[in-house]
Amino acid sequence: MYSGPAQWQRLSEVDNNYRYSRGSLFLFKAEWPFEEFVQFVLVVDGTTYRFVSLTGYKSGHIYSYLPGDEEGFGIPGLAGIRAGWLKENWNKWVYPDGNIEDVYAVDGYPVPKYPPSVGVDIADI
Fold first, then answer.
1. 109-118: pLDDT as tens digits
2. In Å, what is the CA distance from 109 to each residue of 7, 25, 26, 118?
3. Rounded CA gap, 115 and 101, in Å?
4. Which residues touch 35 (CB under 8 Å, ≥6 apart)?
């Protein structure tokens, strides 16, 4: 869950014990059926963690369901997925065709300004 200003970090450089919770974003190089780059958001339904595509043609699709074997899944105070688990399992459970060195993560987006700037490209916001 978004907790304040944050910056994108290369997942491979994040401390293994850091936990990503719902709303965390992951940006990485991709191949068909995605575009050249894709962004996923981590969502949770009860104790089931999932990645949903936020960008491109596959936007809104649930892409992967993570197994419940990660220590701390659904345990209050230990919520989230360890960066170390994601690094070890990225190609098995998240995106099989990627390189972990090409994955960037951030805790989430800040609340946008309202009303939005009409006529401004969303990539420039």
1. 777 777 777 7
2. 10, 8, 12, 19
3. 37
4. 55, 56, 57
Cα separation, 99 vs 19, in Å, equals: 20
Which pLDDT band holds residue 103 (cuts at 50, 70, 90)? very high
* DSSP type of residue 118: T
Residue 75: partners with Cβ closer than 8 Å, 6 or more residues away: none
Domain boundaries defined on the chain:
9-108
61 vs 111: CA distance, rounded Å: 23
